[in-house]
Design a protein that fits this description.
The protein is α+β, with helices and mostly antiparallel strands. It contains 52 helices and 25 strands. The model is unreliable at 483-495, 654-677, 1029-1038, 1048-1053, 1076-1174 and 1425-1455 (pLDDT under 50).
Length: 1455
């Protein structure tokens, strides 16, 4: 309701100014807000992950403690059981190393192998050997000798080395923080001291169950803990500046090092195990004892082993997830540090609740007297001793829980079982507290760690290996000291996010008004999300928008003179109207700054979007430059990456005598250089090509800013990612769109995720893909992309699927292409059957050609590209083979449908199913494409009815057979279940499963008829979609006022009124009304008077021509603001197409370079005579109509609204709301007083009227500012207001392209983009080659599919009893049916292979879903979080680009 009120208020405000207050408000134009559901989801996911970390860690630690207790030589188990439990304890230590070996070997074999440095490998092997010895000795030898509570506490000392190194390297950000590692060291040493005292008290008080030489084992435990602490030596060294070169080398071949060291650790662990238990232990290993273990022992041991191994890996993985979703404190640090105390509390709780079931309470006196062997008496005064005394009596009772019994018996070996006093138990408790607090003090930095939005695991943790025996300590000590690293300038660049520049490039080809509305709304939405380029943004990016319009011009022929005039066509007119409409929706005013530039390729329109970001519209003339999408891409890639990149890296040196605009200069090494034309260009100076991104878009793409940022995160995260694409959603209405919705969903849910997980995505669609600049600039990518197709295969691969070919080039050069499922984009899909078939006619052959090209160079690509392995190549070979066999498979499926529905034999059904495809193939070879599509549509409807009948027949057959365990039933049920589960795992897209039925019944059309149509028409290389004659029709109707076709009975009357007819009629009416008025000549229409008035407004100059104002300064009471003195100073510079005044406006630059305490009078003179007159830019014929469209902003109604919104925007951050509203009211009244009764609401103001209006508004603004008596910044505020008034009154500028850029475009056109003019002979030769290629492809497809069908046919003809596989058939009641199921070997093989493919894709989808959820949750936590800066509080200087990479600063001295 509140939204309705706001819209009504805005509409009423517009209605007061004009009779046409109605406007379009595209969906998504409203301001973005964080949705509550995502906040709840983020908190819920953080809570669940934290809980899983805690639970898995507690289970891992508890199961390890139980295993050590069961393997203890002083436990109540027999020697056979102890030996078996010890073996499983050794396997627990080996498991993480085995998993690390498998992962490293996979990366070395299938990714990339870098031979390690022998010296570094030797050092790593030595350290890992010591760690393995310490871990094996501590866990296998020492811990079984100690009690369970001591085993819980003693591992806390393994943080001792980390504390020592932190103290030695002084890694703390503040000096006082060194107290943390010092306290940690003191607490650990205190814990070891208390441990020794505790065992001394136990020995002296003769607590039962103590081992011999316990002091020796305590000392060994301390020494082993020190060896284990070597495991995380890298963390302090990486945080310091020591041995950085060695660590950098280690990162380059870490996989190969881990492959060797993991095997070494396994070998050392086995060596310690066999050496001790075969040669040193009192009870050596008996090899036949493993077979004598009882079933209960095996079940308990294996259960504990698998539980410990799984929970250790789960705890580590969930800990990584917690860090990546920005829940480090709540979901990682807190749960991990709580694992030890929670395990203790859980054990005590279980002990207290289960102790009564083990030993019933004794009904004895509080004191017990026992007599020893030497007739000595001992009085037992502790209540715990009688409980422990009875445990040995129940060890052989079958009903006794083994685990609880051993836990209780181990606790009885502590000071709780002291026959005299229980207070010595406090020593053990203090030891545990000291160890726990020491660990927290050593890893204090974990609580303050700051994680980027999307972070690699290698940037979160030092080692990939976790220690299953010490899962909590290993995770804390393994966490990188990131906060500490920020103190080091050398490593700060690894922490901060580098700035990047994104060029949004949309290609347009005959888009409709609504489609243009989508892309422009998305761009303006991104402008609002980013905000002012001067402001800091949490996403750290800047962007420009570029739209490239193909076929933008038309030729109008004058009937009288026969001359042709070049004008923009209706598509460009629609685009201009859309830009103005969207601008009006977002700001409630017209565009402030518009430039019209004639270029060698056609023309360019430049807009400044509301927040100050730039929008460029490039109008391509097909007579001057090649049209179509690939050439538009080459055009903007060379312009943005080549020309702009060169321009900003090589600034043009100029002399001071030229006196250029001050805002364009930069002083560097005592030389003066010219800044590039716009803010992004200057920032590009300090941004590498790796951080320059190209966002490829279609002219109808609709996306949210978050979708773009998610793709940027992927490229920022991995340096080898050359491109990333999002989830494309087709939009539209009708059955064809429904089919495509499910087709796109399945393709993204399963196929693209499988490609992303197992290798690399093969195609990043051009409608919504982000490319890395350095990847596109790589060898054999952009240069080869400019290749002109000359052979038949090149026409298919290069021009029919340019997006896939570009990705193929990237993959062959070693770049990775990724897919982000959370980055949603919406684009129009073909709604007509014909348009859909023509689109897929291009895509099908191109997809096959590029995939075969990649497979052909598979061996070379595997060597270059670490993301592509030979298994992935085999996977793609299998998918290609499946697609080639698609027509035969669908034909056999149709045969099965005939067999099910009509109950005919298998051989006859195959013959019937083959006839329609063969006939359709003959039609495709002989008939025209339109007739082929008509026949395909008819056959598609027939097949749809047949598939529907087949579906219900299969369901009926399962009911009759009383089971779904048949080949067809299993295929249908399992497929339906899998797709439903997949849809449920995509909650926002789960409703698309409804279109699955449409997809099912259209399978014959999509995989049989469409394949035939695509192959047979491969020689047709036209685009096939968006073909229209709109431009031609518009050319014919220029000047036509009315065009109607009237049908009356049998008469068809065509009425057409031209402009000349209307003018002649108006002249006659004028003469009839006013006899004294001379008649206007026929060739001078009355409408020309309005045109002459507009033409008097010289838009080649600013609104106030300073040369003219010099003649009027005697009449003026005061001069304009000092800022207006510089706006006509024009300096020609490289890459610049605007005046310096326009550069400042492009920055929305409100920065004041003068002192606010300036006491000079506001009235000052300026010598206008020094200014050179501005060059008059000659205008082409197409410029005037476009300029006239933008001049509508200078009408009375629009000026009023624009002025109000401009003042509010100018003072939006100045905390001057009252002054702002006063200015709006007074200036609006001033405008009304100046223009009321002088001009109409829709009349455009003349130059004189604009001059007088600006003078009056400036006077009113000056009076208001002075009357408010602002203490600080009055002059600055006045200048801001005047600049806002000037922006409101500025007319569209017709500008000239710089000589350097003109030269660039001429050379680019000549070298790569000159229109293709092939002679007739060449075209005929290409047509013959294309038909020959078509024939070869069709023959290959035909032979392979025919062989498959013939093989199946003969298997059917021979008989199922001879060559069939019998499968037992079961009814739902699990009874065996008398007749088994018989399946042909080929059919079974095909079903099994297809099922395996689906299962593999399904598993990949599950993996991808988890990491997509992690990315989305981490993004929502930082979405649109930026701080708007008040220029009044800024320093005198500002930094261009990334402050990390460069310290280049522009100060007031330079300006």
């Amino acid at each position: 309701m509140e939204e309705l009120k706001q819209r009504r208020q805005k509409r009423e405000g517009r209605h007061r100014d004009t009779w046409d207050p109605f406007q379009l408000n595209p969906i998504g134009a409203e301001k973005e807000q964080k949705r509550i559901c995502f906040r709840i989801l983020q908190n819920l996911v953080a809570f669940i992950v934290g809980l899983l970390v805690l639970v898995s860690g507690v289970v891992s630690k508890g199961s390890l403690l139980v295993l050590t207790t069961l393997s203890s030589p002083v436990s109540l188990r027999n020697k056979v059981d102890q030996q078996f439990y010890t073996l499983l304890l050794m396997c627990v230590l080996v498991m993480p190393n085995f998993l690390m070996f498998l992962k490293s070997m996979w990366k070395c074999v299938f990714k990339s192998y870098v031979a390690p440095n022998p010296r570094t490998l030797g050092i790593m092997c030595g350290i890992e050997s010591l760690v393995a010895v310490g871990t094996a000795v501590l866990v296998l030898i020492v811990m079984p000798k100690l009690d369970i509570l001591t085993n819980l506490c003693i591992p806390g000392g393994i943080c001792i080395l980390s504390s020592l190194l932190q103290i030695a390297f002084r890694l703390q950000t503040r000096n006082w923080m060194i107290i943390y590692p010092i306290c940690s060291l003191i607490l650990v040493l205190s814990g070891y001291t208390l441990l020794g005292i505790d065992y001394y008290v136990r020995e002296s008080t003769h607590i039962p169950g103590q081992i011999d030489y316990c002091y020796v084992y305590v000392g060994i435990a301390i020494f082993a803990s020190v060896l284990v602490s070597l495991n995380w030596w890298e963390n302090p060294f990486q945080a310091s500046t020591n041995i950085q070169e060695m660590l950098k080398d280690l990162d380059s071949f870490r996989d190969s090092v881990y492959m060797f060291t993991s095997l070494l650790r396994i070998a050392v662990t086995l060596a310690v195990y066999f050496l001790y238990f075969c040669l040193i232990a009192e009870n050596p290993i008996k090899w036949d004892a493993y077979t004598k273990a009882s079933r209960a022992t095996v079940e308990i041991g294996l259960g504990l082993f698998f539980l410990q191994a799984f929970c250790s890996a789960a705890c580590h993985w969930f800990g990584v997830v917690a860090c990546k979703i920005h829940a480090v404190r709540f979901s990682f640090a807190l749960p991990v540090t709580s694992i030890g105390p929670v395990t203790l509390l859980l054990g005590i709780t279980l002990f207290l609740t289960q102790a009564g079931h083990l030993v019933p309470p004794l009904e004895t006196a509080s004191q017990i007297i026992i007599t020893g062997s030497d007739n000595s008496t001992q009085v037992i005064s502790t209540p715990f001793w009688p409980f422990c005394f009875k445990l040995e009596d129940i060890k052989d009772v079958n009903t006794t829980p083994v685990v609880m019994l051993e836990i209780a018996y181990s606790i009885c070996k502590t000071s709780l079982n002291n026959p005299y006093e229980m207070w010595p138990f406090s020593l053990l408790a203090l030891e545990g507290v000291c160890m726990w607090l020491g660990l927290i003090a050593c890893t204090y930095y974990v609580w303050k760690i700051k994680v980027q939005r999307i972070e690699r695991t290698s940037q979160l943790f030092v080692r990939r290996l976790y220690e299953s025996a010490f899962i909590d300590l290993s995770m804390l000590l393994n966490t990188k000291m990131k906060v500490i690293r920020t103190a080091n300038k050398e490593s700060s660049s690894d922490i901060e996010v580098e700035n990047c520049v994104i060029y949004l490039c949309a290609t347009m080809w005959h888009e409709t008004y609504d489609e243009m509305l989508k892309i422009l709304t998305s761009m303006f939405r991104l402008d609002r999300y980013r905000g002012d380029p001067k402001e800091e943004h949490n996403d750290v990016f800047d962007f420009e928008c570029h739209i490239y319009v193909d076929d933008a011009f038309m030729m109008e022929k004058d009937k009288e003179t026969g001359t042709e005039t070049k004008l923009v066509n209706t598509y460009v007119s629609d685009l201009v109207n859309v830009v103005m409409e969207v601008y009006r929706v977002f700001t409630n005013k017209e565009p402030d700054e518009v430039s019209i530039i004639e270029t060698p390729y056609g023309g360019r329109l430049v807009f400044v979007m509301p927040e100050g970001n730039m929008l460029y519209v490039h109008l391509k003339d097909k007579a001057l430059i090649r049209n179509k999408k690939r050439w538009s891409q080459i055009m903007y890639l060379y312009y943005l990456l080549g020309w702009k990149g060169y321009n900003v890296k090589n600034p043009q040196k100029i002399t001071r005598q030229n006196n250029p605009c001050r805002a364009s200069l930069i002083s560097l090494d005592s030389e003066t250089y010219l800044l590039p034309s716009h803010d992004n260009d200057s920032k590009r100076k300090h941004i590498s090509d790796d951080n320059t991104y190209i966002m490829a878009l279609d002219g109808d793409t609709d996306f949210q800013p978050g979708a773009l940022i998610l793709l940027v995160d992927r490229l920022r995260m991995y340096d080898n990612v050359g491109a990333a694409c999002g989830r494309i959603h087709p939009t539209g209405m009708g059955p064809m769109v429904w089919y495509q919705k499910f087709e796109y969903a399945v393709g993204h849910w399963l196929q693209k995720t499988a490609e992303h997980v197992f290798g690399s995505v093969l195609c990043s669609p051009g409608c919504f893909s982000l490319f890395r600049g350095s990847a596109l600039m790589d060898d054999n990518v952009l240069k080869r992309y400019t290749t002109k197709a000359t052979r038949a295969s090149e026409y298919v691969q290069y021009d029919q699927g340019e997006d896939r070919w570009l990705c193929t080039l990237l993959l062959q050069q070693g770049w990775r292409v990724e897919y982000n499922a959370a980055s949603d984009a919406y684009t129009n899909s073909p709604q007509e059957f014909k348009e859909f078939y023509n689109q897929r006619r291009r895509w099908g052959p191109s997809t096959l050609a590029n995939t075969l090209d990649l497979l052909h160079s598979g061996a070379e690509t595997v060597k270059r590209n670490t993301s592509i392995s030979m298994p992935y190549i085999f996977y793609q070979i299998f998918t290609v083979a499946s697609s080639i066999l698609g027509p035969a498979s669908v034909t056999l499926m149709i045969a099965g449908a005939f067999q099910f529905v009509f109950k005919i034999s298998g051989t006859l059904s195959i013959i019937i199913a083959v006839i329609p495809p063969v006939i359709y193939m003959i039609i495709c070879f002989t008939a025209k494409p339109n007739f082929q599509i008509t026949i395909a549509a008819i056959l598609s409807v027939i097949y749809a009815f047949l598939m529907t009948a087949s579906l219900f027949s299969i369901i009926g057959d399962m009911v009759i057979q009383q089971t779904f365990i048949t080949p067809t039933g299993l295929f249908l049920v399992s497929g339906a279940v899998m797709y439903m589960v997949t849809a449920l795992l995509h909650p926002q897209e789960s409703t698309l499963i409804i279109y699955g039925l449409m997809y099912f019944i259209c399978i014959p059309s999509g995989y049989l008829l469409l394949t035939i149509y695509s192959l047979v028409n491969m020689h047709i290389v036209s685009w096939g979609t968006r073909e229209t004659n709109k431009g031609k029709e518009q050319k014919k109707q220029v000047g036509v006022v009315c065009n109607r076709d009237c049908k009356m009975c049998c008469w068809d009357v065509k009425i057409q009124v031209t402009q000349e007819t209307e003018n002649l009629l108006l002249q006659q009416m004028q003469q009839a009304v006013n006899q004294n008025t001379p008649a206007t000549k026929p060739d001078e229409p009355l409408a020309q008077s309005a045109h002459e008035e507009l033409s008097r407004l010289d838009t080649n100059k600013p609104i106030l021509d300073l040369n003219q104002m010099s003649h009027k300064k005697d009449q003026s009471k005061e001069k304009l603001n000092k800022d207006n003195k510089e706006k006509d100073t024009d300096s020609e510079r490289s890459g610049s197409s605007k005046s310096c005044e326009k550069k400042v406006d492009h920055f929305n630059d409100d920065t004041d370079y003068d002192d606010d305490d300036d006491d000079e009078d506001d009235d000052f003179d300026y010598d206008y005579s020094n200014l050179e007159p501005k060059e008059v830019v000659p205008e082409s014929d197409w410029v005037e109509p476009v300029k006239r469209e933008f001049l509508k902003k200078l009408t009375y109604a629009n000026l009023k609204r624009n002025l109000q919104e401009q003042i509010r925007y100018t003072l939006r951050n100045k905390n001057q709301e009252d002054l702002c509203e006063e200015l709006v009211l007074i200036l609006t009244d001033t405008l009304n007083d100046e223009l009321r009764d002088k001009v109409g609401p829709e009349d455009v103001l003349t130059e004189t009227q604009l001059e007088e209006l600006q003078y009056a508004l400036n006077e009113a603004a000056r009076r208001i500012v002075k009357s408010n008596r602002i203490e600080n910044g009055a002059l600055r505020l006045e200048r801001r207001v005047k600049r806002g008034i000037e922006r409101t009154l500025v007319a569209p500028q017709v500008e000239k392209l710089s000589e350097d850029e003109t030269d660039f475009w001429n050379k680019l056109l000549e070298r790569y983009l000159k229109p293709i003019e092939d002679d007739k002979a060449h075209l005929e030769e290409v047509t013959r080659e294309l038909k020959s290629l078509r024939n070869k492809a069709v023959f290959l497809y035909f032979i392979i599919n025919v062989l498959w069908v013939v093989a199946t046919f003969f298997l059917q003809a021979i008989g199922g009893d001879v060559l069939s596989i019998e499968i037992p058939k079961y009814y739902p009641n699990k009874t065996l049916a008398p007749d088994p199921m018989r399946v042909e070997p080929l059919s079974l093989m095909f079903l099994l292979s297809f099922a395996i493919l689906l299962i593999v894709q399904f598993l990949a989808m599950l993996y991808h879903r988890v990491y997509t959820l992690i990315h989305v949750v981490s993004y929502r936590g930082t979405e649109k979080s930026y701080k708007e800066k008040d220029e009044e509080d800024e320093d005198d200087g500002f930094v261009l680009g990334n402050d990390i990479q460069s310290s280049l600063v522009i100060t007031s001295d330079d300006l």
